[in-house]
């Protein structure tokens, strides 16, 4: 752990007790994030990306068991931090925006009330100073007539505007870390690009680290420094974004990349890839590679423990030393 | 907010006017009022004489206009039975009913809302089960029976409280409990359902992500949204309590407006019945209006409605 490490997570495990047995939703996740860095966690629905981020926030639902070797934010051990300490971190040092801008703001209070509340929860400031800060941030996230928006209610704003307000809300206290959980999924395609651009600009301008959770690899390519690919509760591949896109090593990562059109690589008129099969059940004991039921290169050894391959910067977990790249080329 | 209030006020007045016409017509629904007044042994001439004296021979709309104008001035005519002005009679009885109604709804809200919130914070916990048991018991138990049990236990066995009458505040304790307990279950269940729903919403997660404490999350962010349907329900129950707690008033010998209505119907005392219906309806209209305004204050989305 170097000095500018902001967040370090080692061997994070999340278990959810269900009637049918324990659901091992997240298993042995490692990642770390330096100041100002953007990490993108990619995976399909149910892969445990959102749960991982909620675990960092200390906002897991009742009954979910969290276990880890290390979970540290700056000097705070998140595993042992008191509720009071977690409350002080949330909204101040770590902020979060969510997928659903339509329902993430309280319908009963004005935009201004909600922005000001956030600042006042963490800073001793006058209402007029908090107001000024709210206007400043609304302008920063590209909302026109910011001062008059303060008196408006969420239902008077469009989805795109509401997501901008959510971003302003998250930035009120200038957090060190912003967790964005699918921030553009619920928006129109044209708005998606704007919001993403805004997030990138703001993280640079404010020297803020970001965990961007998404299922859209196209988004990742434009934004992230580092990528962590999750499948069924495990990290299958992590590395610098450029390296992962250049040399996708895990069969699942390559499968995901084939699902999106890439300029210059995908031929016009050719069919985009799909990954056949469904995500396995994670109830009961889970061993070996979770992707083996859908992997074209699965071998009996996939049931056993899977070695970590690659180097410290770019690693992946597969029984095939090369992630079955050679096998794939032969069949192609 | 102001345009909304004015619009609702206009609507309320319109409803009030309609209700006044209907309650006036009730006089004629039960047949010829002159014949009813004259009694079974009266001759045709007597009935005709009564018809002229009371003005029943004039066109109905004229009679309505006259009745409405005097009603607006607080004159509801004279009770056939008591031979006293109806307005004074009702005002006197209404006092008891209003004390009982306000105490009853307060008791219901003060027990049901906290209980509903507590039950929603920990669903299926012991608190939730106790609350469920209390609401089922409250819904299943008839008021008169619960009232009698309270009288037997607290007034007769323990001698702590008076069994009947309306002289001191102590006389109102048992009736308040009975009336309030009748309204409690519905409010409790609605609060619980509303809170459960709200606590699972995205904006509660946002509030927690902001670093808000549990108290703030529960009472500032959740309760305000959860309580909206409860306001409408409480308004209807309040109207009901001010108008129709006949059972409770009878059990505890509190001679309030509900009891007066029951007596007057039995005695064919039409001016009193008419005035009471009008007054009770006005209560409903006023409380519905207040509930609408309160809800619009709680939820800005309703202001445009």
From TrEMBL, chain A:
InterPro entries: AAA+_ATPase (IPR003593), ABC_Ni/Peptide_Import (IPR050388), ABC_transporter-like_ATP-bd (IPR003439), Oligopep_ABC_C (IPR013563), P-loop_NTPase (IPR027417). NCBIfam families: oligo_HPY. Pfam families: ABC_tran, oligo_HPY. It comes from the Bacteria. SUPFAM superfamilies: P-loop containing nucleoside triphosphate hydrolases. It comes from Roseivivax halodurans JCM 10272. Keywords: ATP-binding, Cell membrane, Membrane, Nucleotide-binding, Transport. It is found in: Cell inner membrane. The lineage of its organism: Bacteria, Pseudomonadati, Pseudomonadota, Alphaproteobacteria, Rhodobacterales. The keyword Heme does not apply. This is Peptide ABC transporter substrate-binding protein. Belongs to the ABC transporter superfamily. One of its GO terms (biological process) is transmembrane transport. Residues 7-257 form the ABC transporter domain. GO terms for molecular function: ATP binding; ATP hydrolysis activity. GO terms for cellular component: plasma membrane. It is a peripheral membrane protein. PROSITE patterns: ABC_TRANSPORTER_2 (PS50893). The keyword Cell membrane applies.
UniProtKB/TrEMBL annotation, chain B:
It is found in: Cell membrane. InterPro entries: BPD_transp_1_N (IPR045621), MetI-like (IPR000515), MetI-like_sf (IPR035906). GO terms for molecular function: dipeptide transmembrane transporter activity. Residues 94-291 form the ABC transmembrane type-1 domain. It is a multi-pass membrane protein. The keyword Ribonucleoprotein does not apply. One of its GO terms (cellular component) is plasma membrane. Keywords: Cell membrane, Membrane, Transmembrane, Transmembrane helix, Transport. It comes from the Bacteria. Its main location: membrane. Belongs to the binding-protein-dependent transport system permease family. This is ABC transporter permease. It comes from Roseivivax halodurans JCM 10272. The lineage of its organism: Bacteria, Pseudomonadati, Pseudomonadota, Alphaproteobacteria, Rhodobacterales.
């Amino acid at each position: 752990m170097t000095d500018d490490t902001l967040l370090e997570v080692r061997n994070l495990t999340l278990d959810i007790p269900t009637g049918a047995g324990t659901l091992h939703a997240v298993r042995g996740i490692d990642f770390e994030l330096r100041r100002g860095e953007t990490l993108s966690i990619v995976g399909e629905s149910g892969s445990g990306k959102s749960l991982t981020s909620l675990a960092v926030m200390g906002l897991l639902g009742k009954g979910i068991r969290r276990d880890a070797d290390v979970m540290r934010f700056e000097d705070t051990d998140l595993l042992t931090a008191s509720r009071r300490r977690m409350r002080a971190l949330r909204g101040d040092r770590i902020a979060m925006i969510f997928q659903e801008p339509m329902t993430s703001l309280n319908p009963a209070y004005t935009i201004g009330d909600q922005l000001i509340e956030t600042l006042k929860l963490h800073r001793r400031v006058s209402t007029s100073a908090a107001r000024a800060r709210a206007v400043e941030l609304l302008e920063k996230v590209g909302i026109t007539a910011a001062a008059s928006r303060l008196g408006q209610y969420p239902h008077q704003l469009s989805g795109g505007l509401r997501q901008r307000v959510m971003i302003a809300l998250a930035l009120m206290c200038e957090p060190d870390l912003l967790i964005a959980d699918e921030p553009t999924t619920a928006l129109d395609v044209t708005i998606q690009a704007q919001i993403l651009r805004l997030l990138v600009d703001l993280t640079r301008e404010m020297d803020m680290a970001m965990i961007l959770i998404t299922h859209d690899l196209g988004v990742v390519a434009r934004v992230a420094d580092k990528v962590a690919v999750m499948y069924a509760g495990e990290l299958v591949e992590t590395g610098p974004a450029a390296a992962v896109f250049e040399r996708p090593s895990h069969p699942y990562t390559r499968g995901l990349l084939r699902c999106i059109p890439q300029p210059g690589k995908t031929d016009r008129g050719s069919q985009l890839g799909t990954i056949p099969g469904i995500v396995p059940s994670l109830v009961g004991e889970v061993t070996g590679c979770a992707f083996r039921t859908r992997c074209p290169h699965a071998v009996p050894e996939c049931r056993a423990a899977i070695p970590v391959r690659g180097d410290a910067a770019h690693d992946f977990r597969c029984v095939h030393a090369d992630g079955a790249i050679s096998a794939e080329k032969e069949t192609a | 907010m102001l345009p909304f209030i004015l619009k609702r006020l206009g609507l309320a007045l319109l409803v009030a006017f309609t209700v006044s016409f209907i309650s006036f017509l009730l006089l004629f629904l039960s047949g010829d009022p002159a014949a009813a007044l004259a009694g079974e042994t009266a001759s045709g001439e007597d009935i005709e004489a009564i018809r002229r004296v009371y003005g029943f021979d004039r066109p109905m709309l004229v009679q309505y206009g006259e009745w409405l104008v005097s009603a607006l001035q607080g004159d509801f005519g004279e009770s056939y039975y008591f031979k006293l002005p109806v307005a004074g009679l009702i005002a006197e009885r209404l006092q008891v009913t209003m004390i009982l109604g306000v105490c009853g709804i307060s008791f219901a809200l003060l027990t049901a809302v906290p209980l509903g919130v507590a039950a929603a914070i920990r669903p299926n916990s012991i608190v939730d089960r106790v609350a469920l048991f209390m609401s089922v018991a409250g819904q299943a138990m008839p008021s008169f029976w619960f009232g009698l049990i309270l009288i037997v236990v607290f007034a007769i066995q323990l001698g702590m409280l008076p069994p009947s009458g309306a002289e001191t505040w102590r006389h109102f304790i048992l009736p308040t409990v009975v009336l309030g307990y009748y309204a409690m279950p519905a409010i409790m269940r609605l609060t619980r359902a509303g809170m459960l729903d709200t606590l699972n919403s995205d904006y509660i997660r946002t509030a927690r992500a902001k670093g808000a404490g549990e108290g703030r999350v529960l009472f500032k962010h959740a309760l305000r949204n959860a309580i909206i349907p409860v306001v409408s329900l409480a308004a209807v129950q309040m109207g009901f309590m001010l108008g129709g707690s006949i059972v409770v008033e009878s059990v505890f010998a509190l001679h309030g407006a509900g009891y007066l209505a029951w007596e007057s119907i039995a005695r064919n005392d039409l001016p009193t019945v008419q005035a009471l219906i009008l007054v009770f309806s006005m209560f409903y209209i006023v409380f519905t209006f207040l509930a609408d305004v309160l809800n619009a204050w709680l939820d800005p989305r309703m202001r445009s409605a």
